[in-house]
Design brief:
Shape: globular
Number of domains: 2
Largest sheet: 5 strands, mixed
Strand content: 15-25%
Radius of gyration: 19 Å
Distance between the termini: 44 Å
Structural class: alpha+beta
Strand order of the largest sheet: 5-6-7-4-10
Helix content: 25-40%
Number of strands: 10
C-alpha cells in the first residue's frame, strides 16, 4: 500500500509556525494476512518540531507499535514470519531527596525552550518503543564513564546543547534506562564539572532504593 501522511502534518515541505519544522511524518502501510502493518517514516525533516506537534507525533508512533503488536497476536503465525518487532524499554528519571524529577528541574534551570524539550520527550518515547536502535545517535554507544552513558539533544544555533547522563537499568539492565542528572556541552566541555560523580552517585542511590526514580517524561512541572 502507499504512503499515508498523518493528519497533523500532511503537507510535504511545509513550514510550521516559527519555521521550526519542515516536512512531515507519515506511515508506510503493508499487509500481513489481510491486516495492516504500519511503519513510521520521515520525509524532508530539516529542523525541530513545533512543540504543539511533539505530543501528537509521539502518540502516533507509540500507537503504531501497540497496534502492530495487537495485529501479530491476532494473526496467523505464518503471516508474521518476516515482521520485525522492537523490544519495549522503560525510561525513568531520577528523583531528588525532595521528591522532584531532577531532569525536569534541570531543564527549567537551563531555560530550555518548549521545542527542544519536546524533541527530548519524543526521543524518549521512541527509545521506549524500540530501544537505542530506534533513535540512532541519541545515546552514546559506549559509556562516557563507568556505567554511565550520554544522551544528545541537539539544538539550533543559540540553543543549549543538552547532554543528560543516564545508565542502563540499573535494576533490569536489558529492559530499562534511568536518566540520572543533567549536563550541557559548551566549547567541547561538559558542565557541571562534577557530572560524572553526580551520575554515578545517583545510580548507586537507585540501586539501593528503586523508589528514587519515576517513570515519567521530561515535560511538565518537576
Amino acid at each position: 500500500m502507499g504512503a499515508v501522511c498523518s493528519k497533523e502534518a500532511d503537507a510535504d515541505e511545509r513550514t510550521h509556525r516559527g519555521g521550526l519544522t519542515e516536512g512531515y511524518i507519515g506511515f508506510e502501510m503493508s499487509e500481513r494476512g489481510g491486516r495492516e502493518i504500519r511503519t513510521p517514516f520521515r520525509h524532508g525533516i530539516r529542523g525541530y518540531y513545533d512543540p504543539l506537534y511533539h505530543p501528537v507525533v509521539a502518540l502516533h508512533i507509540s500507537s503504531i507499535l501497540d497496534y502492530n503488536a495487537r495485529v501479530m497476536l491476532n494473526s496467523s503465525p505464518k503471516y508474521n514470519a518476516n515482521v520485525i518487532t522492537l523490544k519495549k524499554w522503560t525510561v525513568y528519571c531520577f528523583i531528588s531527596a525532595r521528591g522532584y524529577n531532577v531532569i525536569r528541574e534541570w531543564l527549567d534551570e537551563e531555560k530550555v525552550n518548549p521545542a527542544q524539550r519536546g524533541d527530548f520527550q519524543l526521543k524518549i518515547r521512541l527509545l521506549e518503543g524500540g530501544g537505542p536502535e530506534a533513535v540512532p545517535g541519541f545515546i552514546t554507544g559506549t559509556p562516557v564513564a563507568k556505567d554511565i552513558y550520554k544522551a544528545k539533544i541537539r539544538g539550533n544555533k543559540g540553543w543549549v546543547q543538552l547532554r543528560p547522563m543516564l545508565c542502563k537499568g540499573p535494576i533490569m539492565l536489558e529492559r530499562e534506562f534511568t536518566f540520572l542528572c543533567g549536563a550541557v556541552e559548551k566549547d567541547g566541555k561538559l558542565i557541571p564539572k562534577d557530572w560524572k560523580k553526580r551520575a554515578q552517585d545517583n545510580r548507586e542511590i537507585v540501586i539501593a532504593d528503586p523508589k528514587r526514580r519515576r517513570h515519567e517524561g521530561v515535560v511538565g512541572k518537576p
